[in-house]
Amino acid sequence: MTIVGATKAAPAAPGIPVPRSPEPENAAEARLITAAEEGDPAAAHRLGRLCAERGDTWGARHWWERAARLGNVDSAFNLGVWHQRHGTAEEAMGWYELAAGNGDAEAATRLAMLLLDRSGDVAAARLWLERAAEDGSREAAHRLALLCEDTGDYTGARRWHRAAAIAGDLRSAHYLGFIGYTAGDEAEAQHWWELASRGGHAEAAYHLGLLHQARRDEQGAETFFRLAVRAEHPGAAFRLGARALARGDLAEARSLFELAARAGHVPAQRMAGLVCVEFGDRQAAGLWFGRAATAGDPEAAYRFGLLLVAEHHDLASAKHWFREAASRGHRGAAIELRTLLSVTGYCPHGEPCLTDPPPPYWDRPVAPELTARAELAVAAVAHRGDPAADADQLIEILGTWDLITRDVPADADPIGWLAGVSGLHAAAIGHLGSVRSTVLLPGTAPWPTRAEVEHAVGTARELRCRLGLR
């Protein structure tokens, strides 16, 4: 029986001659040839393997075709692989279907992926994946879960991710952690992330570290960050570097920041530059500030400009980096740029970043538990394949709310009070508060969209401006 969407198994062409092969190397091989020619499928399969090991691909194909026609499933699978590499996808699909129809789960999985890639036949692919997954294939269960996600079947996705995770698939366990976190079930998230991290999944260890940090369990956070750092996870190295810096261990902070910086982690590059300045290593500081500045970090661009002036008296380059930082709202850089222009005889009125300054760059410190929540929210959205907001935007929202509500009377409604003192519409402030609440309390509402986050950031900046706060 042929499943819809798959091709019929490609029979061996009757006119294909037996390829020329060297004489049997020993009596055992001669006996295999005799047995295969007399109709022994196991002997023909073994001969195919011997030919493949010698690099005789056509000989391997000949004997595997003979074995497959006699019912050898492994030979049918090998022919699928052979044709996928040396022949056509259609022929490969035919042999995979023959093997899959006789219970080979890996053949069913490969057939399903070819059906998706070649013809987009989701129904047939799902049928084969379900057959393989129900037979206990971990890989098929994982791929079926992904297919369910793509088609909007989140109940099916959860079922098959769970089956794959229980069978030991760390990717599915990691995903299940996000399903639990998004639903507000942090115990479920912790269970799956811990399972995956103990198996060596660095991302799961990092996200579990973030979850502990969000709960203000710094010891638990450090345990899993260190587990992730064993795999040189840049985010975990950055978090541990910040902890080392907070306790005054500059040597460990530098080592960790530079580990993350070498992997391209931009905030770590900036922090590595700052620590190198403390060590008096201006050359290394310039390297890291330069890399972070080139990647668009305003604070690094500002620091790089200062270093260029102090160490090299390179005013032209410093002017460039002050301009880059000022154009991203860095207030200190704008002041330095104005001063430098004045000293070098240039008029600041020709600088758009000075005459029409952008929104201010958020540079206030934010509690680690809030930044952890922001990162988890972004990761949860991105894990579903949806467009995610920038973590820095969520951090600015969380930090702004803490800043602007410090003076709210204990018995007052924060939204009404802020609307009264700022003159901003209560609905806009309420939206800012709801985005904040969703990030801090996952499961209470759908994750905010990128547009909703950008709107909330605009409200946060307007509130700070009206309240005289940066």
Can you walk me through this structure?
This protein is elongated. It is mainly alpha-helical. The termini are far apart. It has 26 helices and no strands. Among the domains are: 147 residues, Tetratricopeptide repeat domain (Serine Threonine Protein Phosphatase 5, Tetratricopeptide repeat, Alpha Horseshoe), CATH 1.25.40.10; 66 residues; 99 residues, no CATH class.
Quick tags:
470 residues, mainly alpha, Serine Threonine Protein Phosphatase 5, Tetratricopeptide repeat, 26 helices, disordered N terminus
Q: Summarize this, please?
A:
The protein is an all-alpha fold.
Total number of strands:
0
CATH structural class of the domain at 27-173: Mainly Alpha
Order of helices and strands: HHHHHHHHHHHHHHHHHHHHHHHHHH
Q: Architecture of the domain at 27-173, CATH level 2?
A: Alpha Horseshoe
Helix/strand structural class: mainly alpha
Q: What's the alpha carbon Rg, rounded to whole Å?
A: 31 Å
Principal-axis shape equals elongated
How much helix, percentage-wise, in residues?
Answer: over 70%
CATH superfamily grouping of the domain at 27-173: Tetratricopeptide repeat domain
Organism: Thermobispora bispora (strain ATCC 19993 / DSM 43833 / CBS 139.67 / JCM 10125 / KCTC 9307 / NBRC 14880 / R51)
Protein name: Sel1 domain protein repeat-containing protein
InterPro entries: Sel1-like, Sel1_AlgK, TPR-like_helical_dom_sf
Region (Disordered): 1-26
